[in-house]
Amino acid sequence: MPQRPIRSIIAKQKILTASSEITVAEAARLMKKKALGSVMVVKDDGRLIGIFTERDALFRVLAEGRDPKATTLADVMTPHPQTIAPDKPFGHALLMMYDGGYRHVPVVEHGKPVGMVSARDALGPELQEFESEMQRRARIGEILG
pTM of the predicted model, to two decimals? Predict the structure, then answer.
């Protein structure tokens, strides 16, 4: 698994990008809609300038008493995050996350985001199967409930 190229991990991935001028509340709604834990913040030309994660929402917004409807991503994003190329091995990204103490690494090609790897990807297909099964059981529970 650690030798798998990142490109294979992000092949079917949906990515979420946004302008640094949108509010935290708007970003949170987008993240919820796409079921993603982060948004890559880009300039008008599509180049990556930052990342905003669910942990940023918790620690930099809620814990600091900021208003999510008035706070923009520019105010609370991590600017210029470390990135990785899609042809690098996944183990490289895991090492970056471990050394840096973060859970997401944007995958960038020619300065533009093409995907995101996260600590969750280390569990790979097994986790996805488990999540699908749990969602299936939850739907059955709602129907029977």
Answer: 0.80
